[in-house]
């Protein structure tokens, strides 16, 4: 992948296309995983929709920002996907949002007698909690933020993260634990 990033930095547009093909499966898995945490978005958007929106943002971002390596690239994709999901959740669950006023396709109107209500939408408090969590992740020291990004957002195991970062598994485990303690402390203080 670093070869593709190098070629892309040199201006090779074909490298960008190859890069997207190379990461498509991982980004789809990441989108599916992250979408589970956003019920109001999940009612209206599918994994492919999130993947497409993130890819479009990634293409625009790569015109301005050049990740130095695979690590920075994965951090960038996680950040962009978080922003896509939070933007959609706010849009859909806000006062004029579609999730508050229309029954999603395939679901029965919750006011129909004897029928189950539609899946719950994200409350403003839940959106605030998600936003606070992502903000707290962004405030972590770079080494810990990187491990959280790869483990939580990309779904990689400790051994995979260790290999990608060139670290020992124990180091990755220590950074993960330190990050979780810091996140818990920061979220409790907020």
What features would you describe in this structure?
With 190 residues, the chain is mainly alpha-helical. It has helices at residues 2-9, 13-35, 39-42, 47-64, 70-93, 98-101, 124-139, 142-153, 158-165, 169-189. It folds into two domains: 1-103, no CATH class; 140-190, Winged helix-like DNA-binding domain superfamily/Winged helix DNA-binding domain (Arc Repressor Mutant, subunit A, Orthogonal Bundle). It has ten helices and no strands. α5 (70-93) runs antiparallel to α7 and α7 (124-139) packs across α10 (169-189). The longest helix has 24 residues, at 70-93. The radius of gyration is 19 Å and the shape is globular. Residues 109-121 have low confidence and may be disordered.
Question: Over all CA atoms, what is the radius of gyration?
Answer: 19 Å
List the secondary-structure elements in sequence, H or E.
HHHHHHHHHH
Overall average pLDDT = 78
- Tally the structural domains: 2
Number of helices: 10
Inertia-based shape: globular
Reconstruct the topology from this structure.
Elements: H1 2-9, H2 13-35, H3 39-42, H4 47-64, H5 70-93, H6 98-101, H7 124-139, H8 142-153, H9 158-165, H10 169-189
Helix pairs in contact: 1-2, 2-4, 2-5, 4-5, 5-7, 5-8, 7-10, 8-10, 9-10
